[in-house]
């Protein structure tokens, strides 16, 4: 069975790749510092390791000898990750991981990238046309990892792909982020004040993100691929959909807050590569995924 | 006294920065895996360490607590360094070094970069105009380090500069490279066959490169700065100058080899930033530096 080592496998994105990898016939191995929660246990072979300690990573690579690598582990402290100096450590650790993976006989690397690598100018952002001009340390560090991987993979005999994620939401999202915050407010019956919430984003359920990464790994596609729905909506649409599902439409109050002019009006993705080259399309409409996510959060409260 | 930690201090570039740093009133500290040769010993405080082992670097940083960092250490195996996978290790080690230097209280970082970071299209190459589009893994890795350093330095409260070197020559150059090879041939009285040798390059004596880096460190200039003479010449001019100095002009035979069409006709540097902002100019003409270099190699033979 083809072995794939997943990093960040207890994190928001990585955990949702494990079932889709298994569904495609792969044997997922995970390297983690945390204890995986019980639901994750049967989905992978778990190895204790710290990605910021190279020796421990090498030991796992030597033991597993994975064919594939799905790399998601990174600094993700809410808010802080945009400029945290730990971004340098994760850049370094990523490159060391790639080098050690190749030395251990690895064949294909797929990495979690971000729409923050792009210049946020012309929409939709398109893999081989939109300039790469990050506005954050996080975006620069991800982009630097991609630059090195792109230049090196051919020399190392590796194939590689780079999934640029847009706005994932869903189970296990950090509670400070939009969707969990709205759901928590609705469940508490509190009013939710917003500005006009007209900003448009490409939201995709993280279960679909995980499946898209498994599909990307399975495909022969190389290079950067946007991981997005291709069906962007306004933040208002998301909030209204959740509020309606909760039967609490009146709690969503638009126009009560002053607009944050620092936020771009639109962050959207061209998904031609994902849809046509990888052959992956979102299996369910956004409204359904939002309803399922609402239900998931409600169950967490019990 | 201001302490500056120099990496690669036994290497071709780093060793030539030690005397210029001292001349400007700095206390140079060096971290090295090799034993420094006797001539270098008095020019720095030497610390044993391996830049590819983070703990050993941290120990030196904690002991020295340097104000400044001059970073040159990198994979430099002749020929192989363009595509060697060790470029990934050095990229990672550089970022870890910067992070640890800042944590240890460092203030200013100056790094050895390369003209191989630029797209080799329009000449002369100019820091803020020429696109960064390396053709090699080496160039991509250096560029990735620069991208991260540029994005991070402000967050870390560091000032930074990046010296892009062109074609250094001089004492301790690798014998397989142009100037040492020509000198070795001349000293052996052997004919030196060339193509038309019309390619134009920006050559700068490595002693001047070392002095320019010390000047760059001392200046308040931030960002990328070309480290070059601003007076490019053809390879033929260099060979003829050396052959004439040896009284052996007839050994230089142009037009005897077929031209390598893969080599760019011109690789030249705009030196306005170096000359006007850093305030550094080469102290001697190329012909004089070539004669001194010839003399240095002659003395090595004794």
Write the layout of secondary structure elements.
The structure is a homodimer of 302-residue chains.
Chain A: E1 3-7, H1 18-23, E2 27-32, E3 45-48, H2 54-64, E4 68-71, H3 86-103, E5 108-114, H4 137-153, E6 159-165, E7 167-169, H5 178-188, E8 192-193, E9 200-201, E10 203-205, H6 206-218, E11 223-227, E12 233-234, H7 235-245, E13 252-253, E14 266-267, H8 272-278, H9 286-300
Parallel strand pairs in A: 1-2, 1-4, 2-3, 4-5, 5-6, 6-11, 7-10, 8-13, 9-14
Antiparallel strand pairs in A: 9-12
Helix pairs in contact in A: 2-3, 3-4, 5-7, 5-9, 7-9
Short account of what is shown:
Two copies of one chain form a homodimer. Chain A is an alpha/beta fold. Chain A is built from nine helices and 14 strands.
Question: What does it look like?
Answer:
The structure is a homodimer of 302-residue chains. The first copy, chain A, has 302 residues and is of the alpha/beta class. The first copy, chain A, contains nine helices and 14 strands. In chain A, the strands form four sheets. Chain A has a seven-stranded parallel beta sheet, with helices on both faces. In chain A, helix 1 links the parallel strand 1 (3-7) and strand 2 (27-32). In chain A, helix 2 (54-64) runs parallel beside helix 3 (86-103), helix 5 (178-188) runs parallel beside helix 7 and helix 5 (178-188) packs across helix 9 (286-300). The longest helix of chain A has 18 residues, at 86-103. The termini of chain A are far apart. The mean pLDDT of chain A is 96. The interface between A and B is medium-sized, with 30 and 29 residues.
